[in-house]
Amino acid sequence: MSAFLSIQNIKKTYGNLTAVENVSMEIKPGEFMTFLGPSGSGKSTTLYILAGFQDPTAGDILLNGKSLLSTPSHQRNIGMVFQRYTLFPHLSVGENVAFPLRVRKVNNAEIAERVNNVLKLVRLEGFAERMPAAMSGGQQQRVALARALVYNPPVLLMDEPLSALDKKLREEIQLEIRRIHQQTGVTILYVTHDQEEALRLSDRIALFNQGNIEQIGSGQELYANPATRFVADFIGDSN
Ligand code: ADP
Ligand code: MG
């Protein structure tokens, strides 16, 4: 039996530079998996390969036993929220959220219902008519989250979605993300360089270092049983 989401020996090179090497993991449905590690360690590259923005040099990704690599990005049914995943500035909040459904030719009645439900989920009920420029940074990220979730993708990718926000707002939205994860059961792959954030959010953490995974486990496992000196230093470091 194959896993829900299986990342198999992914490698990515840019010319002479090896960005990612031997990245493998099995992710369970509904799991919250975080890619943690310092800048340049290959976290985003791995996520972009999952999203279909980049092709791996070697390796495979299987969703429900089927390779994703030949499926174009927009057909992978994977939701995405990025640090600067900007909203469409000329579209209202409601139309931003509706966009993935319009692309999929969903009918208007269903669009209205789904947009309403997902805005409720991110606690932005009543904001559909607003323009993005009239929303705070935190609200805009919640709109981006609503847009990513509106078609119920089985997998949601988030690349440092909170790093542009201040600490208080970051902690507030961390709680929101946890609640939404529990409420929807969506499988989340989350990238951060912040070990506190990783420990707070994740079921498991994959700790990246120079394009390789040092260790995969719960925060507790990494903390209590670090496989390498790097893991001990990175997880223990509470700057
Ligand atoms: P992280 O997200 O962990 O900060 P990245 O996955 O962005 O790391 O980058 C891993 C390595 O790959 C870095 O050395 C980075 O400079 C390099 N890299 C990433 N994207 C490209 C690209 N498009 N072209 C060349 N090198 C890249
Ligand atoms: Mg990155």
UniProtKB/TrEMBL annotation:
The keyword Nucleotide-binding applies. One of its GO terms (cellular component) is ATP-binding cassette (ABC) transporter complex. Keywords: ATP-binding, Nucleotide-binding, Transport. Residues 5-235 form the ABC transporter domain. One of its GO terms (molecular function) is ATP hydrolysis activity. One of its GO terms (biological process) is quaternary ammonium group transport. This is Branched-chain amino acid ABC transporter substrate-binding protein. It comes from Ventosimonas gracilis. The chain holds residues 1 to 239 of 359 of the full protein.
